Amino acid sequence: MTNLEELVQEINRFEAIIAEWDESQRCVVVGLKRAIEDLHKTALKRLIKSVKSESISALRHAVDDEVVYAVLLYHELVKPPTPPLEHRLQIALDEVRPGLQSHKGDVELVAIKLPDTVEVRLIGTCSNCPASTLTLSQGVEQAIKSHCPEITKVIAVSSGSAVDNSQSNLTSPFALKRGSTWLRVTTVDQVPESAVLAVQVAGNSFILSRQGDSISCYHNACTHLGSTLDGGKVENGIITCPAHGFQYKLETGECLTVPDVALGSYPLQIKEGKVFVQLR
Rounded CA gap, 153 and 142, in Å? Predict the structure, then answer.
């Protein structure tokens, strides 16, 4: 008996042949295919309704056949299998890990408490960062609930040990170390007062703003999860992160959402109308 793999290969062979035809010929084939599929789908719906009314177990048994299942899935008459909860949780955590790991943090799954609760642990600098509560609610929790709608409670448990942040820069978790290299990034007249100017220099991204005669330069990364800030709205000298709503004073870099985590600032020099930044 022909198996599903052989049937799929046969379909692919004909599709490859049709792909070489001109557009008018392909349109005829596509129209015929759509008409046949609509006929089959209508017939299958009626068949399912009839079998279901007689014996639901018989219908379930029929769907166990791989060819029957494949055809019903193609016509969207059955739902694809849902991956196990633990697998979907790991996918969700993997989505947020790059942002956490970029400032020496991470997250791990601790426990699944059915029917609606999971426990996670923030580790590294994330475990006692002043923004850890928001990191959990706006980063980890959102990702988990997106992939696992049955989960309504995400609880952070303590790591049980203190994290040494003596070498960490809580001013900006995404900041790099300062150096002594000065590079030209723009000119004074290109730096706006009611907006920010985003520039890329030597692989680094900065935002610059002007307050009167004073110009400020910051790393173009929100201190929450590292989202870029240059697309954020600026009002009254305050920029709002477009990703999660964190707000910062452009004059000082102070974070108004979580006061203990400010933007990482960069020293500037202005020579003959040109703006130079000291790389980190």
Answer: 11
Cα 149 versus chain centre, distance: 17
* 165, 128 Cβ separation under 8 angstroms: yes
- Does some domain include residue 176? no
Residues 249 and 231: their CA atoms lie apart, in Å, by 15
pLDDT-based confidence at 173, cuts 50/70/90? very low
**Pairwise CA distance, residues 6 & 11, whole Å:** 9
For 205-255, what is each residue's pLDDT tens digit?
A: 899 998 888 899 998 888 777 788 988 999 999 999 988 888 999 988 898
Count other Cβ atoms within 10 Å, centred on residue 110.
Answer: 14
Annotate 204-232 with three-state secondary structure: EEEEEEEECCEEEEEECCCCCCCCCCCCC
Give the Cα separation of 79 and 49 in Å (integer): 16
Burial of 140 (0-12, 13-18, 19+ CB in 10 A): buried
Residues 127 and 46 in one domain: no
Number of domains in the chain: 3
- Residue 14 covered by a domain: yes
Angle CA(175)–CA(230)–CA(246) in degrees, nearest 5?
Answer: 70
Instruction: Check residue 66 and give its pLDDT.
Output: 80
Cβ neighbours, 10 Å, residue 151: 22
Please give the residue that has the higher pLDDT: either 255 or 165.
255
Domain presence at residue 79: no
**Amino acid present at 19:** A
Say whether pLDDT at 165 is over 70: no
| Domain region containing 127 | 85-156
Beta bridge partners, 276, equal 184, 269
